[in-house]
Automatic annotation (TrEMBL):
One of its GO terms (biological process) is protein transport. This is Preprotein translocase subunit YajC. The chain crosses the membrane at residues 6-24. The gene is yajC. Residues 96-148 have a biased composition (Basic and acidic residues). The keyword Protein transport applies. It comes from the Bacteria. It is a single-pass membrane protein. PANTHER family: SEC TRANSLOCON ACCESSORY COMPLEX SUBUNIT YAJC (PTHR33909). It comes from Candidatus Limosilactobacillus merdipullorum. Signal peptide: none annotated. Keywords: Cell membrane, Membrane, Protein transport, Translocation, Transmembrane, Transmembrane helix, Transport.
Length: 148
């Protein structure tokens, strides 16, 4: 065989290996992950479709490969492949740490602190207003002395 033929054959093999590791293999992993997600899909899950429609799974029909979503009272039927992802923050699971509602004690403490801050701000405004009034009175008194 010719040296050019071998190098061309090596280049083609290298391109096929490159395509496998950077295109085909990641796509296969993604497909397996999506199939796994679809097999775990159940009624009540919050999902997002490929068209970015958010809804709650109302019914799954495995025979027809369809899913019915409840979108705030409107029921829409989609192909199972239209489900892009499942949001795991549904009402049956606890909210994320940052999303937890504040405890009553914390709320009352926050409200008390807010009231105290408002009172101190109001007092500072009153003190400033009184100081301004006093300065105006002093200036008026000085002007009266100069006029006499």
């Amino acid at each position: 065989m010719n040296h050019n033929t071998l190098s061309s054959l090596g280049l083609i093999i290298l391109m096929v290996v490159f395509m496998y590791f950077f295109m085909i293999r990641p796509q296969q992993k993604q497909r397996k992950a999506h199939q796994s997600m679809m097999s775990k899909l159940k009624k009540g899950d919050h999902v997002v479709t490929i068209s970015r429609l958010h809804g709650v799974v109302y019914d799954i029909n495995q025979a027809k490969h369809t899913v019915t979503l409840d979108c705030e009272g409107i029921y829409l039927t989609f192909d199972l492949g239209a489900i892009m992802r499942v949001n795991h923050q549904d009402s049956s699971q606890p909210a994320a740490k940052d999303d937890k509602p504040a405890k009553k004690e914390d709320q009352s403490t926050d409200q008390t602190a807010d009231k105290e801050t408002a009172k101190s701000d109001a007092k500072a405004d009153d003190d400033k207003s009184a100081a301004d009034d006093k300065q105006t009175d002093d200036q008026a008194a000085d002007e009266n002395k100069e006029a006499k």
